[in-house]
User: Fold these one by one.
Assistant:
Number 1:
Amino acid sequence: MHDNVVDRSKDITILEVLDRVLNKGVILTGDIVISVADIDLVYVGVKLMLSSVETMEQLKSGKSVNV
Amino acid sequence: MAAIQLCRSHHKVINGMSENKILFNSGSPDELSEEIGKFTSNEESRLKLTPDNADSGLAKLVLTLVDLIRKLVEKQAMRRVDGGSLTEDEIERLGETLMKLEMKMEELKKHFNLTDRDLNLNLGPLGDLM
Amino acid sequence: MDQMIYSIVSVKKKQRELNTLLVGMKGVSGADLYAVFCDEITAVVSNIKRTSLVADRSNAMDYARVIETLAQKFTLLPVRFGSVMESTEMIIRMLGRNYDEIQSNLRKVENKVEFGLKVLCDSEKIKAELRAKAEAGTITEPALASQKSIYKDYLYEKLKEHRFEELLLAQIDTIIQDITNHFAHLKPIHKFQKMATTTNIIDDVFLLEKEKKDILIQAVEDLQTQYADLHLLLTGPWPPYNFVDLTIK
């Protein structure tokens, strides 16, 4: 029972660490070696594009989307 | 004594962190195992991408973008219907188009042997994007 | 030789201290770590063979540990795993081109650490509760047309799902408002993500002075008493991964 709790804590910590180290932090453009990261860059680009759409919608409708 | 020390350093190596990072945690372990499971499968599929399977990597990327756009369109359609400004005929046509789009998407996913999970489809609440 | 970059560190006068610290540390794949200086900022790097880098969990954890150790002694910006540049010269040029932005980010995170608060609950369960409420007839539907049609049925099913999602999001917004008010006295910088997964309905990260850790824990305990049925998970302190607003040119 105790082992379970300890394992669970380790899992949570690992999850938190990996989420940060793989998804967050400074992103350098240019020479990113791992192809995984290459595809990631496009995702970043996609998110930027999507927020432009949101802004466009807000501007067009003249009302705020998030109440 | 030596055995205990070995145990502690072993724990540190696995954990990698110099202190306990969990400051407060309520709720059942089950909820979190679901969380961990979802993350690790995402993480593992990311990490497995190599120059060798770049093709399926590209298919994943394209389909994710296509499905994202499809869902955004669907979301906007729902807002229009909810707003009450559409005629019965328009609603009928909208339903038909959306249904066919969804079916086409399923076809594409099957063709490339990709699941929703592969496409990282949980991109947060789409409501925020509109 | 390719260099993997772990973080960008604010060094000021402590160059020797940094070098000493790096001598005692190992990076990914047991590589030596060293510092690439550019005026007051430094990149911490290790040599890496492009072809031999394996992006697996153990390497990622080693990487994180380096950042963690450095963060105990220095103000820094964590860099994402897998960031590699071709040479020391290129790194120095990159630091120079982005000097001002890097410095302003370092100032922003100086003496501060990141904490993460996750609110977890089964959103499918909540949606099911909402659906149950709807069966009681509180959610109105547009008047059904004279002719039955699979397309209309499909659409109305989608519409119902959409409405449940909206209701769920409205509830989440209320909780976020509550959380913000609850932690206002700590004066943190907050970032929220809604519905990061179907269980993680709110993912909140704070940037806060390290000393406020205990007050934060207390505030979370208080929050828990208010939302007895929600699962709260507070972790930290972390290096400021979520608070680097930097577009590297």
Number 2:
Amino acid sequence: MSRLPVKKTYKLYIGGGFPRSESGRTYESQGQNVARASRKDVRDAVVAARAAQPKWAGATAYNRGQVLYRIAEMMEARTAEFAELVSGRAEVERAIDRWVWYAGFADKLAQVLGSSNPVAGPYFNFSIPEPTGVVGIVAPDEPPLLGLVSRLAPAVVGGNAVVALASETSPLAAIELAEVLATSDVPAGTVNLLTGFRAELAPWLASHMDVNAIDVTGADGLRSDLERAAADNVKRVVAGQSDSQGLYEIAAFLELKTVWHPIGV
Amino acid sequence: MTEVEKRRGAAPVPRDWTYAPAPESREIVALHERYGLFVGGEWLEPTETYTTVSPADEEPLATVAQATPAEVTHAVAVAREAFIDWSALPGSERAKYLFRIARILQERSREFAVLESLNGGKPIKESRDVDLPLAAAHFFYYAGWADKLEYAFPNREPRPLGVAGQIIPWNFPLLMLAWKIAPALATGNTVVLKPAETTPLTALLFCDVVCQAELPPGVVNIVTGDGAAGAALVDADVDKIAFTGSTEVGKAIQRRLAGTGKKLTLELGGKAANIVFDDAAIDQAVEGIVNGIYFNQGHVCCAGSRLFVQESVAEAVVDKLKRRMATLRVGDPLDKNTDVGAINSRQQLDKIEELVAAGRAEGAEIYQPPCRLPERGYWFAPTVFTNVAQSYRIAQEEIFGPVLSVLTFRTPDEAVEKANNTPYGLSAGVWTEKGSRILWMAERLRAGVVWANTYNRFDPASPFGGYKESGFGREGGRHGLAPYLAGAVQ
């Protein structure tokens, strides 16, 4: 007697849990019913991200690096599953290697981007990079996994929490990634992944007053509108490439703090 | 009431002797009756003009150009043409031009300082000892970077962007010009700069320095005018906009640039917390509080406009502060004794008065030391509000005047939470004798600059800029080069 397989329900990833959309709606993509997130789901995800961010930023850089490396380990074990949902094994392997690359950058950022500044006065003056806070990411449709990881990894490595909108046309890899994140010691709420219609969700994310930066890399025709909405609270607007890796990608999500510390006896 | 208490309540200024006036002579400044637009190394006759005044007595100083959109467009075209040769010049040669400018500013610093105080209303003591030395130092600092960009950003092949449109405020007219022009030129860009409507004169005198330094025509272009001229510059064919000013205008510019691909840096408003712990050196802290809010009449984006005092020392600090305030000399900006000068414009005075009225209406307790304000001109006495709640407008909105709101806290955690409770994030001050607490606080304050046991200190080597709605991008230091380079990282 053949066994009836247990099918997966594709849900959102918010605050470390897997809720259905608050709206109860779904849409069909890649032959599956996928959750169609609503404005309220965006709001919940931002709340979760804001709550999680201080703890994630407060973790040591060494620890954040290890957590990112753990993501790579977990993905590696699921290579075959991922490969079926995206363009193929090569894309998965590049996405895994991308996590490893960023994992190794976590405890080097302050050294590469910071400085001590020789001011005229009895002060030790130094500048250090800090996370900007909560980052909204509009991930590109293609490549669905590598594109998402290419934007997500540089945002989280510096201590930001993220609300990301997955590829609209191929969202399944993002949900698979959520399952990886949920089992990789990434604190709940640090990364939140939403599936649904970009045109419906991205404007809410871009205009949300508790989001500090918006990545419009996958915004396509929405880009101007999102950039305009971002001005409501002077968001940092980041427009990267769907498939790039580098220090700039990280620095775009960082602030710089300068401290004047007195020298004296 | 004991004898001691009675005496404490009385005005502490001795009545028997007064300061003799010590005005700086205006003669060193040769004002033109009329100024045009400085484009391509020449003065263009403007189509529209307005009159700029001295805020201290409303005396008309000169007629200056109100640049039209067509004139702004022309200036940008000239800057674009000049970019070809300027960007091709070896960095070492660009450096020498900037060194020259720094030297000329040092040489002519008295002239600039007098003009700055005349047109802007700030005390000569400040324009002489702060604005001018820092402006010259800024050019000197960035001159040295011009031929070392590959050391600043290794393996990035940094390239200039093209034409930078720069819009600056009226609180530090020449210094803000230096903050904008020095890094832009060092990195090989050309600029079109619009000074603030109320303070165009030192920027126009700077054109003289540009000529004296024999800077190639079109590398620096100055167009004067109001917000409409600024909007025209934002819309013109520039590659980058650098703006310092209010958060409201900053947001409007960000909206306007949406989807254009033009680069943008914003240095906007603030509502900085100046936090005094019970172990701080109180006298030193009171000096820092005064410098934090009454420096430049409080027309400072990073002014320490919210004072947080630990509850156990609050009374002592506020008492000392009030006594210190009574010794501040308010009056003629050109008098070398003056501590607090004129409010920059009628419009700004109206805004300060509106917010102070709101503070009273909401229930805060006001204190202003006895001082006689001049009858003509725009003036506002140093003011402190006690009994302020976090929700009051005077604790939330940027006043940009000599008005301090005092709040209290009990624990370091509470201080951090209250300090961060605004949409702004430009600067903060911490006063404590404990080094570990300084760093603990500095780590948690969401602000671009944190001063410990000091306030309102600036240096060309020290990056300056905001978090949150105080803007993005940095000016000063190696980091200040990045906004003017393609391929550069923060």
